[in-house]
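General statements about sequence and structure are easier to judge against a single worked case. For one protein, we set the task of working out the structure tokens from the amino acid sequence alone. This step matters because it turns folding into a mapping between discrete strings. The amino acid sequence and the backbone structure tokens for this protein are reproduced below.
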Amino acid sequence: MNPVIPLLALRVFTEIGRSGSVRQAAHALGVSAGAVSQQLRLLEDRVGMPLFQRTRSGMELSEAGKLVYPELVQAFGQLTAVMEKLEGIKNRRTLTINSEPGFAASWLVPRLGKFNARFPDIDIRVEASLRLADLQRDGVDIAIRHGLGKYPGLHSDYLLSPVMIPVASPTLLRTGTAINSAEDCLAYPLLQDSTRSDWRLWFEALGISPPPACEKGMVFDDDFLLLRAAEAGQGIALVHDIHAQSALESGRLQQVLQTPWSNRFAYYAVTRPTSAPRAEIQYFLAWIKDEIQQSEASIMETVDN
């Protein structure tokens, strides 16, 4: 048995069966009538039986032809649908974004619906990881990194410089002592980052000698976990303002002291120089910068109120 399926001959068969004419089938397929007749002969020789009856009115399906014609029409319809799906996948554009979990969960992901509404033909794939991504090896289009913006061999776009603010649950603050200075925060449990360094650096930035108690307390790997613990009333968290924005606006958290510390690190969107000019990357960068501008304005309004 010949394992090769004669797709062209089968396509010719379905076109003749649909139109009842060799000439019309040739026109539909964009080939000559002679080529259609040749393919039909090859198919009938292959199966060893006639598939049409030649009549004065045209080509009529034989009994064998009538049995297989509906199935072949359905099969070619499925093949057409598959090709359309493949072409649709090719025409869609996908961006892979790598970000630290805190920024992704607290800031980026809640806003991605706006990007999708503006650019419905661009799919976004978000990877949230504390591991530093290799853009080339990992297939990452844009990495959102927190640092000084110096990444050899890569292109970086400045996004924003978050500030560290102390936040806590309003319920916790109502049951404790008033906070009028940085030292007053020590009356509450201090929720720590993984290095136990943020509170110490915050006190130093305010010109205060860091007390030993500022490095004690429960430890969490990222701002998202710190925020959840603060919302649960477990203590005061020192977090990036952009991570706390949603909780501050909803009233789940309250900024306990209006002495934010602006650190020297910033968020950058990092891309490969060869891929940076891609339209979808430029669309995303323009969108995220616009969102950041709106977010910063909203933070200032929340603090003022």
The mean pLDDT is 86. The chain has eleven helices and twelve strands.
